[in-house]
Amino acid sequence: MANPIQLQLISSDVDAWNGWRKRNPGERVDLSGAPLRGVDLRLANLKGADLGKADLVMADLTGADLRGADLRGANLVGARLIGTDISGADIRAADLRTAEDLTAKQLGENRGDAETVLPDGVERPGAWD
């Protein structure tokens, strides 16, 4: 269950969120199951965050830092991923169908599985098998 204080902060002001992350680098970020549908998360520092089963449908994650994030089972349908760093992220069983601007390079730098749903025309990395 998402931390309600963290959820409120990330949902309302990404700049304030990034400032909080800078001041609290060791704080565990729990946004698991968070309802972030359509939220503007451009340039958000979500490095190492728990976003398991989060609803990120149509969220704008342009330029966001998701390195090492837990996105297992997250719904990223239609999410905007231009320049998003998802290296080292766990996207097993995530739904990335119709995610915008997802590249093979991004996929090759994280952990997925047979249950990870990719956009049409995007090939599953061989390392996932």
Task: Itemize the secondary structure elements and their pairings.
Elements: H1 4-12, H2 14-23, H3 104-108
Mean pLDDT: 95
The helicity comes to: 10-25%
Rg over CA atoms, rounded to whole Å, is 13 Å
Helix-strand topology string = HHH
In terms of DSSP E residues, the strand content is under 5%
CATH architecture: 3 Solenoid
Question: Largest sheet at a glance?
Answer: none
The secondary-structure class comes to mainly alpha
Runs in which pLDDT lies below 50 for 5 or more consecutive residues are: none
Termini Cα gap = 30 Å
Q: For this structure, what is the CATH class? A: Mainly Beta
Task: Give a written overview of the molecule.
- This protein is mainly alpha-helical and 129 residues long.
- The protein contains three helices and no strands.
- The protein is globular and about 40 Å long.
- The mean pLDDT is 95.
